[in-house]
Each structure stands twice: as C-alpha cells, then as structure tokens.
Input
Amino acid sequence: MSGAFVGGIAAGLTAPYYAVIFTSRRTDGDNGYGEASDAMVALAASQPGFLGIESARGSDGIGITVSYWDSEEAIAGWRRNAEHSATRERGRSLWYSHYEVRVCRVERAYAGPPARA
Amino acid sequence: MSGAFVGGIAAGLTAPYYAVIFTSRRTDGDNGYGEASDAMVALAASQPGFLGIESARGSDGIGITVSYWDSEEAIAGWRRNAEHSATRERGRSLWYSHYEVRVCRVERAYAGPPARA
Output
C-alpha cells in the first residue's frame, strides 16, 4: 500500500498507532521458512490498516519482527486471515522453538539522524 | 534485577507493561559501539522498573532492540540517566545513520511453544 514500509526502517508514522512485536527463536534448518516468511510479509502488506514492518535476526538465532498497524481492528483482521492462520500453525510446529507476541499501542515516537539513502 | 531477562527472549511478563522499540541502521565500523552497547544493556538492567531486553541485528545492518519496563516513569528515569544520555549522543553522532524510537504500552501478550533449553 502507498506509504507503507516493507524492509528497512518504518519512519514517519504518526502516533498513536499499533505495533505487534514478534520475538522468536528458530529451530534448526529452513523447513520452508524462508519462502513462507517472504510470502507472509507480502500478504501482511496487502492488508487494510498495514503501516509497515521491520525485521532482524542475529547470528544467535533470536529474531525480532515488528509490524505496524493503524488500529486494533486491523491487527484482528490480519490475525483472522486464513493463509496467515495456516502459516502460524506451521510456525508453531516447525519453525520456532519459542516465540512471544506482544500487541502494543505506540504512544509516542521520535527519530534520530535524518534517513540517508 | 531478579526475574529480568537480558539476552534471549523476555518471557512471562504480565500485561500491561511498557516497551521501547529502538530500530536502527548502523554506520560503517565499530567506533566503540560494541563495548558501549554491552555497557548500556548492563546499565539498563540495573534501573528501577526494568523488566527485560531483546535484541537482534541482521546482516543488512538493520537492528531492533526492545526493552521492557513496568511503567512510563521507569522509561523516563532511564532516559534521564546521565551515562545513558551521553551514550545516546555518541549514537546520534557516530553509530547510527538513522533510528526510530517508539514508546509503547503492551496491551496483551501470548507465547508459542514452551521455552526449551
């Protein structure tokens, strides 16, 4: 959607809005994760109320993905998406040894040095 | 502090609580970042109201650190910490080409497969 951020840093959003923090530890092996992860990012970006997504995974296997949404209703809609639900089930059974999901209201935000190319 | 998580995944926290999402893109070179980063994590963990911290940085240079706190007052206290303030200034001038800080209220949280060793 126009103005949404996929990859990189989601900037220029105006609080209040909502964030879903997904912190995970991967199991060994890919098991279809890479392809499914790319598909889920593309699918999320097509949902109503999607504002952006940021993701990082370090060499210790800990990953953090934060998606941003304009309302709690948008988050609930994404959670109900059938393809997303099926992929979450694969995540629970195949890809993650542990994860935490936190649904947050972003109260305020600020940024440091202006974005460079 | 007892019960706080440093490294790994912060689990078992009871909502509501607060999260500070710090997303950044690093400049080239270390420039003292590694040592200062470790010191800041240790200092944060010693602050009143600290609940835990999670961090990941991928090979594309995008990093996400989320710290968890029991109140907005705890976040304000950490922000006022003199050593933290001085290190933030080094971050702005040396380490980050861009960052976003988002202060959030965690409304609800849930977890997937039980933590394994």
Q: What stands out?
A: The first helix of chain A runs from residue 33 to 45.
